[in-house]
Write a structure and sequence with these properties.
With 324 residues, the chain is an alpha/beta fold. 31% of the residues lie in helices and 20% in strands. It has 10 helices and 14 strands.
Length: 324
């Protein structure tokens, strides 16, 4: 199945693999099976990906969402305020995650060895269990570049490194959380020509939240770049979407985005209509590949998508069929 997932060539193959994964998870994931049973939905009746039930993402906070009897190799956890319940993604085959993010990055950006990878992820480094840190740490290693590395509070050192690498014509990727990137450009203004600035979203309570357009305009001016790239990922997923500018995201061939009606979670929206973001991530083979997130957005005719906000209420309406 791993070969099938990462070698999808067209929509027909995606649908075939997605339906096979749905059958596997219906049979082997107790939490997901209970959810499907409450909806009276059985794989024998499901012919399209739109008919597959999407598990509310909150279940990762209260249940063990696994579709495998293998031993858990890694536990990824979400960030949260003190005392809050965090999501836990139990990963029984870490190689699926590695293959997903390595092939996903290569799909959009080419060989990682072409880059110096600099990471500015202070809030993620300060806790355990971040899937983002796991991915970026491996990208740093795979770059085989002694200049690659993490930065925590040493912004002066990072600024000097960015200027030096860019001046030398070195292709560089700076991946950072929004508030830390803002901290950096408040300390130093740049005019970068060979550097990709990629934000991973979120002020994490450190700063006032900004709408994407405002954030990207400030970052573009501060770094002296034409576009700000973005990464769309979360604890509950093993794949990422990437934007090369304007907040328009693409997904790798084994990942799809759909939107649902905000008042009726079981009704899928047509293209170009705002709604709740549903994610199909086939790399989640051993947990759940069909997730109803708390993000709001829309999918365009060409399959790209954008995020426009989040649900205000903590529960996704129409999905509260099981006590969380």
């Amino acid at each position: 199945m791993e070969n099938n997932i990462f070698n999808i060539q067209n929509e027909q193959e995606f649908t075939e693999v997605a339906l096979a994964v749905f059958k596997h998870q219906f049979k082997n994931n107790k939490v997901y099976r209970s959810f499907c049973d409450l909806l009276y939905i059985h794989p024998s009746e499901v012919k399209t990906i739109q008919e597959i039930p999407f598990l509310p993402i909150q279940f990762f906070k209260s249940r063990e969402v696994v579709a495998s009897v293998d031993e858990v190799e890694e536990v990824f956890t979400s960030s949260g305020t003190t005392g809050s319940v965090t999501s836990k993604h139990l990963v029984t085959d870490i190689n699926l995650y590695k293959e997903s993010y390595l092939k996903g990055f290569a799909h959009f950006y080419g060989n990682i060895e072409a880059y110096t990878v600099l990471a500015l992820l202070p809030n993620y480094l300060e806790r355990k269990g971040s899937s983002l840190v796991y991915m970026v740490d491996d990208l740093i290693r795979k770059s085989n570049n002694i200049e690659s590395g993490f930065y925590l509070d040493n912004l002066n050192e990072l600024a000097k490194k960015l200027i030096e690498l860019d001046k030398n014509g070195q292709k560089t990727l700076l991946i950072g959380v929004s508030f830390a990137l803002l901290d950096l450009i408040e300390m130093q203004q740049f005019k970068l020509k060979n550097t990709i600035i990629m934000e991973t979203g979120g002020m994490k309570g450190r700063r006032k939240e900004l709408v994407r357009e405002e954030l990207h305009t400030v970052l573009q001016d501060g770094f002296g770049v034409a576009k700000i790239h973005s990464e769309y990922g979360m604890t509950e997923l093993l794949s990422q979407g990437y934007s090369k500018g304007n907040g328009i995201f693409n997904t790798p061939p084994w990942m799809r985005i759909l939107t649902r009606d905000t008042e009726d979670a079981l009704t899928m929206n047509p293209l170009e209509k705002n709604g709740g973001i549903n994610v199909i991530d086939l790399a989640n083979y051993n947990s759940c590949s069909f997730i109803a997130t708390q993000d709001l957005g829309k999918v365009h005719e060409n399959g790209t998508f954008e995020i426009i906000g989040r649900f205000d209420n903590s529960d996704i309406r129409g999905c509260n069929l099981m006590v969380l």
